[in-house]
Amino acid sequence: MDIDGFEQFELIGRGGFSTVYKAHQTAFDRTVAIKVLEVDASDEVVLRRFQRECELAGRLTGHPYVVTPMVTGVTEDIRPFLVMEYCPGGTVIDRVRRSGPMNADDAVDVAIKLAGALHSAHLHRFVHRDVKPHNVVFNRVGEPGLTDFGIAVVSGLTESSVTTEALTPTHAAPEVLRGEPATPASDIYSLGSTLYVMLAGTSAFGGAETGPYGVMGRVLNEAPARIEGIDQELWDIVEWTMAKDASSRPGSCRELAQELAHLQQRRGIDVTEFVVVEPAADYQVPDTVDPDSWIPERSQTSPRRRRRRRIMGSIAMVAVVIALIVGAGFLGARVGTRGGEVSSSASPASGAASPAKPAGLERPPGMQTAEYPSGSPDRTGDLRVDLTDVGAAFSSMTSSPLITKDFPFPSVKGYPALVSWNFINPVHDSSCRTLFVSDVRIDGFVQRALTNADVFALVYVQRLADPTMALQSFVGQSLELGADNEDCTDHDEAGALTSAAASTVSVRVLDLGDLGDVAWNSWVGATNPVPGSTSYTAIAAEGTAVVRVDVSKLQGGDVSADELRDVLTKVLALVNK
Q1: pLDDT for residue 273 is more than 70
Q2: What is the pTM for the complete model shown?
Q3: Please, what are the domains in the chain?
């Protein structure tokens, strides 16, 4: 790392979209923290976002509990960076790991201070979007500070960095996980979730050990577990902030702070000052604010007077796709099945003897190289248009409207992309190639999540440069979802295609019948993204298109072969019309 005016760089943290260094600023002879964002500042949209979010965060300069940037800039390799106060006390997460849950009085004190920081941001008409224990730090005198205002927006994410732990949507409000815009109410929920961690020493709904899907289901559908060792008054406030329905939470951070201050008064301890940085008289509401998504301050009934009720959130699981994609295979998780018997990528199928490790398995899975040739159009936009009415493909399974959300593929910067990819067969059966090296040109790619109370589905569509490459992608993805020697023909164990046209993988756990010239495969339980529900997966190649659908019924029951065939053929018809 080399930034003018700074030296003695020491890596102290790394996340999915940022790296943090401790460094010495020579001009002021002081230690600072430098956060380098893993985004491309040569992209005008990213750069404008970065500049605008820095301006908004700068409006809070002087707030004692906000860690605002001192200096910003762009590194030699065109990545934005922010220079901030170095806080040696670590984060809330660091503190509870070192010493266990915080004293209740200390946790309430911190919560009021953070509420003042957030209320100041809300008065300036912007939301933090990423309040969590990882973003609350303690400075040299032990005072808390809230970091990372707006960084989630710059990076195109809405809930945390994509480290294994922070990837799970642990502290995001239910409405944010349903794909709705972040608002002050969602910041209040996240502050309540952070207060929960301070009091309990653990998150309300689990973390990395639970997995993103388990956490997602709990956030949307379960009430937080009662924290032992705190009194009922404080617990009522925690529950209030973490209500599933945004309208049942405190109307503002000020209202939350007032309730916490009343609690301090009743306990006979000093009341924490609620510090707010008001907007200047000539402050203009930034044009980034969507007025339709803004929830103004409103009067709510406090937990001392309201009837306690639990509101179950929607089972919609759109935002979990972020977690599903990151770290997964070419189109999904590397988990295999054989006749419904699931095996992970780390072990053979249940009850099977471990075969000898085939040659080439030591090669890393996933994308090896990517080039971006010019002269060909990006077909992603065309695919999105083709998929405008893709919800209708699920008409045999649900009559209710579907919430939809698209996500980019994180390993590829744009299209067309000439990609070299190593597909790893999780069954590790040497008779059915463990390693499959594919060099294909992807001209467009869409991955879309769809959900309502009945179903959760993932639809992935690739547009390849030619039908041979489409078949290669189909074979590789089929191997990656899991295949054994009963499923493969004409394969070279070393990993090279003997003939793209002749090599096949045929895994047909559900019989979808005769689909004509369409190459297709099917699995049961190959991915299982929704806790308690079984996924039904089908993948098909036709022409230059490769389509994969994963479907789960959320109210129980199986997806029939006819239903899976109906979905698959309708999606194929949309992209090949």
Answers
A1: yes
A2: 0.54
A3: 6-85 (3.30.200.20), 92-283 (1.10.510.10), 367-575 (no CATH)
